[in-house]
User: Which sequence fits this backbone?
């Protein structure tokens, strides 16, 4: 029996997506332009999903700082 595609996608999503309670997403190397600060999901394809459902393209992101804990 073959598992439905959605079931498989959900299983892989757990391994290839990172949920973070607090990140800072920067658009430039100097860290002067902040695109987002707060919770976010980094998807396997490089896109960043914000709690509102908005997606940030990998082309607009220079780097992401993750903060573990408080």
Assistant:
């Amino acid at each position: 029996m073959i598992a439905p595609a959605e079931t498989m996608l959900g299983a892989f999503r757990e391994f290839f997506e990172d949920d973070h309670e607090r990140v800072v997403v920067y658009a430039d190397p100097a860290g002067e332009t902040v695109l987002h600060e707060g919770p976010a999901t980094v998807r396997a394809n490089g896109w960043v999903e914000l709690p509102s459902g908005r997606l940030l393209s990998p082309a607009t992101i220079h780097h992401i700082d993750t903060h573990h804990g408080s």
Summary: Helices lie at 5-16. Strands lie at 18-26, 34-42, 48-49, 55-56, 63-66. The chain has one helix and five strands. The mean pLDDT is 86.
